[in-house]
Write a structure and sequence with these properties.
The protein is α/β, with parallel strands linked by helices and about 300 residues long. It contains nine helices and 13 strands. The strands form two sheets. An eight-stranded parallel beta sheet has the order 8-7-6-9-10-13-11-12. A five-stranded antiparallel beta sheet has the order 1-2-3-4-5. β6, α3 and β7 form a beta-alpha-beta unit. The two termini are about 15 Å apart. The relative contact order is 0.17. The mean pLDDT is about 95.
Amino acid sequence: MRRLLTPAATADVLADTLRAGFDPEAAPPRTAVPVPAGELLLMPAADHAYAGVKIAGVAPGNPALGLPRITGSYLLLDGANLRPLALLDGAALTELRTPAVSALAVRHLTPDDRPLRLVLFGTGPQAYGHLEAVLAVREVAEAVVVGRDPVGARALAGYARTLDVPARAGTPDDAAGADLVVCCTTAREPLFDGALVAPGATVVAVGSHEPAARETDTALVTRAEVYVEARAAALREAGDLLVPMAEGAIGADHIAGTLADLVDGRVPTGRPRFFKSVGMAWQDLAVAAALYRAVREAA
C-alpha cells in the first residue's frame, strides 16, 4: 500500500476529506464484540462516493505465536449502489492510516522551523509506521525508542539509523527532553511521568480505544491542550481522557479542539499539546478509496 500512497500523501487524503466538509462527529460508532481469541471490531463508514466496512480482529495472544496482533479485511463499496469494488488487507490499511492521522496532527501541533527530538514508545508495526510518518512531515534530530523488549527497541533504533536519523534505545525518563512523544503500544497503564513533558512539547497517543486503558497519565492530560479526532468518539473510547474524567481531574470541556479544527487553521498554545487518537472508520474509508483510485489510475 505504501507504494501507492506515501505517509505524507495519506495525511493529505485525510486533510482533504476534512476540508471537503466531512463531519467526524456524525460518523457511526465502532462495534466491539468479545470473542474467545480477543475482540472483533466492526467499523462502517460512508460518503456520497463510497461506503465501506472494516472487520478487524484484535488477538492479544497472537504475537507469542509469531502472528500479527491485528487481523482483518476492508470491503470498499460504491457509494451510489453499494456494489463491492475492492477487498483490502485490513491490518495493512490500519498500519497506513493510523500513522497518517498522527502525522496530520504533528503537522499542526509541532514547530516546523527546527529538527525535533522524538521519543517513540513501542516496537511493533505501528511504531515503525509512526517513525516513517513523522519523518515524512518533520525533520528529526534524534529518535529515542522506548520498549518493553530491549531487543525490539534496539532493532527499531537501528532501522531509524538506516533512514539517516541518529537513534538509540532509551527509558521513559527520556520524555523529559522530547519535542515530540509518540505512544503506540498495547499498554493499559501510563508509560511515563507526564510532569516531565516540556511546556512546548507535543504528545501523540494512539495505542488504545478502550475506556479503561491509557498510555498517558492524569498529570499530562491536566497540563495539556487536548485535541482529538472527534469529541463523541473520544468520550466513548479514549481512556487517556476518560480515566482523568472519572477521577474528577478534568471535564469534557477540557478538550480544546479536534483534528478538523487544526486542519481549518486553529493555532495551539505554548503549553504541552496532546493529541489522542482512537482510530475512526471514516479514516479507513478515505484511505481505502484513495488506494482504489490510485490502482485504477495506474492500470
